[in-house]
Predict the structure.
Amino acid sequence: MHVYRMQQLIRQRGKDEVVNITQRNSLYQIIARLERDGLIVVRATETERNRPERVVYELTNAGRGITLESSSRTARARRTQG
């Protein structure tokens, strides 16, 4: 998934209240941290004619584990709230 698509999904899912993505630069900083921590890796770099280079990222196994753990916590919290 590339950065622009990540930004769109964060907004669509209402997570922009939790993650500051008003400026794409903030998202690039978050991506750099996730990559540094081994939670995502670059899957591909795409280039189209006169467009800027587009980097596509994917979750690592560690990233998937944290994502599943976080999703489970969120689901449990919703169930207890009723």
The chain has a mean pLDDT of 85.
